[in-house]
Design brief:
Elements (H helix, E strand, L loop, with lengths): L44 H9 L2 H11 L10 H13 L4 E21 L5 E3 L23 E2 L4 E9 L5 H9 L8 E5 L5 H10 L4 E5 L31 E2 L35 E4 L1 H11 L6 H4 L22 E22 L3 E11 L12 H19 L6 E8 L2 H4 L1 H17 E7 L7 E6 L4 H8 L3 E2 L4 E2 H9 L13 H4 L5 E7 L16 H8 L4 H19 L8 H19 L8 H26 L3 H13 L21 E3 L7 E3 L1 H8 L3 H22 L2
Parallel strand pairs: 3-7, 4-5, 5-6, 6-8, 10-11, 10-12, 12-16
Antiparallel strand pairs: 1-2, 1-9, 4-9, 9-11, 13-16, 14-15, 17-18
Length: 707
């Protein structure tokens, strides 16, 4: 599901948090003189076996398999079984975990615009069929629709609402633009699409359209000499971004079973407040252009609205808000609502320590026949990972810790398969989980990215030094370091790590994507196909292989080392950074807040973390198995302390007090979310309560590692 690449757009809440947004990439100008090429770090014999096991050719075969069959959530049990069978063949016993969840599927939709003079424009709502790209020609190719969108119709004047953030709508309201009763036309970008729909609904608007603006393309445009897909890496103007419109920042998982697993006969909760009630449809630039043009000169021009990212890149358009008197949109959206089985494939390697577990996951479902990038680049990789681990097992390897391989279903609708599984196994996970490793879009371009909880930063970046990055003669670490200035991103949401993190299980998310000038990734479009991947995304499938080698080595080390390779003092270092960010937010706010309790809690945590490092060194140097187990269990358990049982304000699901997706971002993280969001909302009483709660959570985590 991860966020579509948005190269140019930065809508920072505050500057330093921007780095956390996984797919808002920020490329620093590379300093060619200092261009670093570190030698490849040495690998153990087992690590070399893993690396040698990875084959770009077999990865391409797995990719071809997954991208040539309808595998929308709940519609392809045979792919789930095939995945489990591949792992079983490799020597890892695997089976399916089934849940019965609420989903909806598209029946039909339509969009037309009636001008004041009575003439009508009919939007096509379809992506062009391209002979070069076989799955775009299939009769059962997926229409453009929004998962979990409401069935309904609307006929009304419409308003252009920019990115559709709460602040965009507020700004328009402040400028006197009438929103109630109108249709919202929002552009994609920055925040999770379901929140754009929610914000429209909260303003009394009657439907929401979300379109792809050329501002998302950066410099990769026809005007700059790039050809449109299928002839080149520029976006085809008929491309549509499908996706879920669930209210991700409050209610991930099956909306009908909040907090408990979805079985066939589970009690179903009322969903009217957790899913949109107004219809929505995703549209292409091609279909949006006449709509934007019809608003020209009506309402408030974009320059006067003056919000970051509000004005897009359609030449000659002022992005007037509208409404244009007498110009109406007719929106119709019909969905079939079902309670239907979904299938996670689960493979297990038992470790010698039964009470420590590493979990590796990727989702399998896609919005389209293809899904070559999202998610099946990751799926191809975890099939290959199973084979690599199978080779080690055949050589007599026994990991210290259990390794669980997961291929999730229904991630796209709202992290459904992973969330239901976590809800089912929460007692066992709380007792044994050490880390969850997620790979969603493994490959969509040549730039690696990671986001992780702080204890994993060191092992995650060290492991990059063991990976040769394709076509560069440099390590993965060098490329990543140059792109990010050595900063590991903070986890928000948008993929399957979410349910784990918010039950106190540390996680990493990883993938690779395009930078400036690279082919544009056709996210959630029919063009995210095997053909696109083999031609533009990752010709030769070498980035797939490199990401797979990386994930496998990371998992191997987390599962095998005597001492879990965690860096706890870095948790204190990162909290220091979040503390500085928070101080900045408070300093520009209108109120007063005392955060000395938070300061003290972080400082205490730091000294406890330093003490446990000493204890771990003692355990390793004396090879004291009992003491190693004591330390390993502290490492395994400490993160649970950061969670708050009742969850964040009005969002019980989100329990981690150190980071969470922003309530109005869905993808991008907010650090110290309870405090930060209360300050932003201007509620200093609430903020003060959350200073106490957050500091208390840090103390609980610290007490778990206390020696
Ligand atoms: C399921 O996926 C496989 C492989 O992509 C495909 O061959 C098969 O036709 C799909 N099944 C259905 C019911 O679409
Ligand atoms: C959409 O589907 C519904 C249910 O199948 C049907 O009643 C309706 O006529 C269809 N509308 C259009 C425009 O095809
Ligand atoms: C109606 O107005 C639209 C938009 O101004 C224009 O493109 C179209 O030609 C007009 N149709 C007629 C029949 O005048
Ligand atoms: C669910 O309920 C139906 C109807 O009562 C019953 O036939 C079925 O066996 C139940 N399923 C499970 C898993 O209990
Ligand atoms: C836009 O807002 C910025 C700061 O919020 C302000 O400095 C600038 O003058 C505004 N521009 C217009 C055209 O209103
Ligand atoms: C792994 O351990 C579990 C729990 O002890 C046991 O049920 C299962 O049979 C074991 N699997 C294998 C392949 O040994
Ligand atoms: C790759 O790096 C090695 C060692 O730094 C160097 O000897 C070799 O010439 C380089 N190859 C290319 C193609 O740059
Ligand atoms: C890169 O990181 C260093 C050290 O943290 C910092 O001093 C520098 O300003 C950063 N550069 C950029 C471009 O962010
Ligand atoms: C686009 O090109 C312009 C002019 O060459 C350059 O200044 C800018 O940094 C480029 N933007 C991106 C995202 O590459
Ligand atoms: C795998 O890599 C080799 C060597 O670069 C290349 O010749 C081959 O075409 C690649 N396989 C696929 C399926 O792209
Ligand atoms: C540490 O102790 C374990 C069991 O007591 C033994 O198997 C292992 O070889 C020892 N390791 C070292 C490095 O001495
Ligand atoms: C601020 O939060 C408190 C809960 O601590 C709540 O009772 C109060 O209503 C909130 N104030 C506003 C203005 O929302």
């Amino acid at each position: 599901m991860r966020y579509s690449t948005s190269l140019l757009l930065a809508t920072p809440v505050f500057p330093s948090l921007v780095l956390g947004c996984q797919r808002d990439r920020h490329f620093h100008t590379p300093n060619l003189l200092k261009r670093q090429s570190t030698p490849l770090a040495s690998r153990s014999a087992n690590e070399q076996t893993i690396i040698d096991s990875f084959s770009n050719n077999s990865i391409s075969d797995w990719s071809y398999y997954y991208t040539h069959g309808d595998h929308v959530a709940g519609r392809n049990k045979s792919q789930a079984q095939w995945t489990a069978d591949k792992w079983t063949e490799a020597g890892i016993p695997s089976s399916l975990a089934e849940y019965t969840v609420f989903l909806n599927y598209p029946l039909n939709n339509s969009l037309s615009m009636t001008y004041a003079n009575g003439s009508v424009f009919h939007a096509g709502l379809v992506e062009d069929v391209l002979e070069e790209d076989d799955t775009t020609t299939w009769d059962n190719r997926l229409p453009s629709f929004h998962g979990y969108s409401a069935t309904g119709s609307a006929s009304a004047e419409f308003v252009y609402v920019g990115l559709g953030t709460q602040r965009d709508y507020q700004r328009l309201a402040d400028l006197g633009v009438e929103l109630e009763g109108k249709v919202a036309l929002a552009r994609y970008g920055s925040i999770f699409r379901g929140l754009k729909v929610k914000n429209a609904q909260d303003r009394g608007m009657v439907a929401c359209l979300i379109y792809t603006d050329p501002a998302e393309d950066g410099n990769v445009t026809v005007a700059n000499g790039y050809e449109e897909y299928p002839n080149g890496g520029a976006r085809n103007p008929s491309q549509v971004q499908r996706g879920s419109v669930q209210f991700l920042s409050t209610y991930p998982g099956d909306p009908s079973t909040p907090g408990y697993p979805s079985r066939e006969n589970s009690t179903r909760a009322d969903m009217s407040d957790v899913l949109p009630r107004i219809p929505s449809i995703p549209i292409s630039e091609k279909d949006a252009r006449p709509l934007i043009a019809a608003l020209e000169g009506h309402g408030v021009p974009g320059a006067e609205v003056n919000r970051t990212g509000y004005v897009g890149a359609i030449n000659g358009s002022s992005y007037s808000s509208g409404p244009a008197p007498g110009v109406t949109l007719n929106v119709q959206n019909m969905m079939e609502e079902v309670y239907t089985p979904i299938w996670n494939s689960i493979g297990v390697i038992n470790g010698t320590n039964p009470d420590e577990t590493i979990i590796i996951g990727n989702h399998r479902d896609a919005w389209i026949i293809g899904g070559a990038g999202d998610p099946n680049s990751g799926t191809a990789v975890i099939v290959e990972l199973g084979r690599a681990f199978g080779k080690l097992l055949a050589q007599g390897w026994k990991p210290k810790r259990n390794i669980v391989l997961c291929s999730w279903d229904a991630e796209e609708y709202g992290l459904v398969g992973s969330t239901e599984w976590v809800e089912e196994y929460i007692p066992w996970l709380t007792g044994t989980a050490v880390s969850y490793l997620n790979i969603d879009i493994a490959a969509s371009g040549p730039h690696p990215m990671i986001a992780a909880t702080p204890e994993l930063h060191k092992v995650a970046t060290d492991t990059m030094k063991k990976i040769a990055w394709p076509f560069t003669n440099r390590t993965m670490y060098d490329i990543w370091n140059e792109d990010t200035n050595g900063t590991v991103a903070v986890l928000g949401s948008g993929s399957d790590y979410t349910a784990f993190v918010h039950r106190g299980i540390g996680s990493i998310d990883m993938g690779s994507d395009g930078g400036p000038g690279d082919p544009l990734y056709p996210y959630h479009s029919n063009y995210d196909s095997y053909h696109w991947m083999a031609t533009f995304g990752d010709p030769g499938f070498h980035h797939h292989a490199a990401m797979g080698e990386y994930l496998s080595l990371l998992a191997y080390n987390l599962a095998s080392e005597e001492l879990i390779p965690f860096d706890l003092p870095n948790y204190a270092d990162q909290m220091d950074k979040y503390y500085e960010d928070l101080s900045e937010v408070i300093s520009v706010s209108s109120g007063n807040l005392s955060i000395s309790d938070l300061r003290a809690a972080i400082d205490t945590f730091r000294s406890q973390a330093q003490e446990v490092v000493q204890l771990s060194q003692q355990a390793v140097s004396s090879n004291d198995t009992a003491l190693l187990q004591v330390v390993n269990h502290k490492y395994r358990d400490f993160q649970r302390g950061f969670t708050s049982q009742g969850g964040l304000v009005n969002r019980e699901f989100y329990q981690h007090t150190i980071f969470a997706p922003g309530i109005d971002t869905g993808y991008a993280p907010v650090t110290f979310p309870g405090i930060t969001e209360a300050v932003e909302a201007g509620n200093f009483t609430l903020a003060q309560e959350w200073v106490l709660k957050t500091a208390a959570a840090i103390r609980v985590a610290g007490n778990i590692i206390k020696t």
